[in-house]
Amino acid sequence: MAETADYSVADHLRDGRTIKIRALCPDDRADMLAAIARTSMQSLQRRFFAPKKGFSESEMAFFLDIDFESHVALVAQIDEAGRPAIVGGGRYIVVQPGRAEIAFVVIDAYQGQGIGTILMRHLAILARHAGLKELIAEVLPENNAMLKLFKKFGFKTTSQSSSQVTHLVLRLP
Ligand SMILES: CC(C)(COP(=O)(O)OP(=O)(O)OC[C@H]1O[C@@H](n2cnc3c(N)ncnc32)[C@H](O)[C@@H]1OP(=O)(O)O)[C@@H](O)C(=O)NCCC(=O)NCCS
Predict the structure, then answer these.
(1) Does residue 150 belong to any structural domain of this protein?
(2) Which alpha helices (DSSP H) does 38-166 contain, by range?
(3) pLDDT tens figures, 44-72
């Protein structure tokens, strides 16, 4: 969707600093890799459910090849000493008609400042705009920050098919 591919808005962290939320673009590859390098193993494990030291070419191609219909990705960009840096990202991937899976990662130094909440808010706007009916997520049960964030937006825990992962769903009005 062209509008979504051009999405770019200013928002504010809890301390009032401005952050830009915008659509991920293919040119973001280097900045995305820089952000991954600044993210702890624990955070990457919570995002990808496996220890991640790096990403293969095909994984990077998948993360950057966004059609903004079946796969929508936003980044959070902040000014660091006069240079824009990507400090977080969120995406949803349509897994069935009307239903998409959503996930986020914020680099550790910026966690707890509201970026996850902001990304969720903007992805929910885009999901509703696209006519999606449901957002789903899988979260490690010990991931209190992610669970708290999803519950704040009205996600409900559904059946836990395994004790290792908590499944959540948000029905979009
Ligand atoms: C989960 C994550 C995306 C949240 O992003 P964030 O920018 O830190 O989130 P926010 O600052 O918007 O905080 C969200 C809520 O979690 C709470 N929170 C933050 N850290 C917490 C912690 N360690 N324990 C419990 N709650 C926590 C915040 O207080 C906030 O709740 P509030 O709005 O009621 O105050 C981020 O911590 C992260 O990237 N974690 C690693 C990757 C990951 O877990 N991804 C999830 C895969 S689905």
Answers:
(1) no
(2) 41-48, 57-64, 115-129, 144-152
(3) 999 999 888 889 999 999 999 999 999 99
